[in-house]
DNA sequence: CTGCACTGATGGCAAAATGCAAGCAGTTTT
DNA sequence: AAAACTGCTTGCATTTTGCCATCAGTGCAG
């Protein structure tokens, strides 16, 4: 056991990496919002993350193996952040967190429709989504014609937004 | 939406309640370690929580509806903390967190055996465990002769501890 | 009835994390 | 040449954490 760890309990070790107010928000935005650049994460942030916090979290998540950082060939100053398998494996955790939040907290309709679909889709949908993330972030090749889970989630989200705008 | 919330996203709202280094540790110890009093939580804490942090977290978790506090009839100064349904509903989340931690982090064998059993038991075992927690914390009556999931988990933990002591 | 251990906490203080606003050097677009 | 955009960085005030000592009330053994 590393002296820098409080204990070897899996719950504790998970909290030592993800137990703060922002780490999972950043991963969520990369995963479900498909945001890959610093500015995208900063400016589209629903919760209004500060730039120094975002910089710190991206650095820490790269150090801890949840993200990778690569240069963007289209722009010399641009960095592209990608999920690792470790982060992709958080999909079931997000699904459970979303389900718990929807059940017990005052969630907004448009921001919880994706959580609802993910919850109802069950383990099969999660696995499909994870495969899609592996394709997008790890370069894994999928069988052609695979329908996009993220596309379905995003579509449902936009539908709710539209419907609520009308009323 | 309350102005004190960053957004209505279920992931975000969940993080606003549970997104720190200690809240889930406290709930874990009440849930899996069956610790019901302040001192039990303080002195048996694997991670060494400080008393002021523990006091603060217990207060916040009661305020937010995850715990209830009651007087202990056997001692005028004693308080008994119980899980609410909201907290019991975190069992699947703990199961996922444990599974993720076991897969990706340097967990210790004795502290992860319970997570392993919970993971392998699947949704059925989680539901049995939740029913047991409802009996213990909410006074729900179970059919007689129901085997104890917590007993099984604790037994397995002690076996590992014993086995490792011998070698 | 008197020590003494135990009860759930508090208080002080230093260190770290967070939040907010401004700024920066280099790059690309207009 | 100017403007907008790139991933950050800096400064500073506030909040949270971590550690240690302490406390007043309770209950039990002598």
Return the CATH class of the largest domain in chain A: Mainly Alpha
For the secondary structure, the number of strands of chain A is 2
Identify the CATH architecture of the largest domain in chain A: Orthogonal Bundle
Low-confidence spans of chain A: pLDDT under 50, at least 5 residues?
A: none
| Number of separate structural domains of chain A | 2
Question: How much of the sequence of chain A is in beta strands?
Answer: 5-15%
The description of the largest β-sheet of chain A is:
2 strands, antiparallel
Radius of gyration of chain A: 17 Å
Query: What oligomeric state do these chains adopt?
Result: homodimer
The secondary structure category of chain A is mainly alpha
CATH homologous superfamily title of the largest domain in chain A? Winged helix-like DNA-binding domain superfamily/Winged helix DNA-binding domain
SS element count, helices of chain A? 8
Shape label of chain A: globular
Fraction of helical residues of chain A: 55-70%
The termini of chain A sit apart by: 57 Å
Q: Name the chain pair whose interface involves the most residues.
A: A-B, 47 and 47 residues
What is the succession of H and E elements of chain A? HHHHEEHHHH
């Amino acid at each position: 056991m590393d002296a820098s760890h409080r204990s070897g309990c899996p719950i504790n070790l998970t909290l030592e990496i993800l137990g703060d107010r922002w780490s999972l928000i950043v991963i969520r935005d990369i995963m479900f919002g498909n945001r890959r650049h610093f500015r995208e994460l900063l400016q589209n942030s629903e919760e209004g993350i500060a730039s120094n916090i975002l910089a710190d979290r991206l650095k820490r998540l790269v150090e801890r193996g949840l993200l990778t950082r690569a240069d963007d060939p289209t722009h010399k100053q641009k960095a592209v952040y990608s999920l690792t398998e470790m982060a992709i494996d958080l999909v079931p955790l997000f699904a459970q967190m979303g389900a718990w939040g929807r059940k017990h907290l005052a969630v907004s309709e448009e921001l919880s429709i994706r959580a609802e679909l993910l919850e109802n889709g069950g383990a099969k949908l999660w696995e499909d989504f994870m495969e899609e993330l592996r394709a997008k972030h790890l370069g894994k090749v999928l069988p052609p014609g695979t329908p996009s889970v993220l596309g379905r989630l995003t579509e449902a989200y936009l539908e709710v937004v539209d419907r609520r705008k009308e009323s």
